[in-house]
Amino acid sequence: MQFCEECGSLMHADGDEMVCSSCEARLAKDEDVAAQYVSTESQTFDDVIETTEDAAEEGLPTAEVTCEECGNDRAWYTIKQTGAADEPPTRFFKCTECGYRWRGYG
Question: How far apart are the first and last CA of the chain?
């Protein structure tokens, strides 16, 4: 990325020049700067973590609560402040077995 020396806005390439998106200032492209960029073409996939579509809740905490739909005793949950700051937060549950969703207050 290159920023305009006149106004500080982001510049974009236009042929052999860099053009300011705001004030239309123009600069010649600096080939030395372009040589400093790293290409991602040589990226390896050694650090890619394989997962499945049904693993969307991996990493969420679980609670020991009973699902009203299937009777399972474990659910993933998230906590959000849905009311005023002086009210307790709301817990949103999702059954680890059937995927049924519900909320708990307090």
Answer: 48
Tell me how many domains the chain contains.
2
Extract the tokens encoding 40: 């991602």
Q: Residue 74: exposed, middle, or buried by beta-carbon count in 10 A (0-12, 13-18, 19+)?
A: middle
pLDDT tens for 72-97 read: 999 999 999 888 889 899 999 999 99
Q: Is residue 45 part of a domain?
A: no
Decide if 11 contacts 21 (C-beta within 8 A): yes
Active site residues: 86-87
Task: Report how far residue 62's alpha carbon sits from residue 78's, in angstroms, rounded to the nearest whole number.
Answer: 9
pLDDT given at position 84:
87
- Segment (H or E) for 77: strand 75-80
Question: Which range of residues forms the domain containing residue 88?
Answer: 58-105
User: Which residues does 44 contact at the CB level (< 8 Å), separation at least 6?
Assistant: none
Determine the pLDDT at residue 47: 65
- What CATH number has the domain bearing residue 95? 2.20.25.10
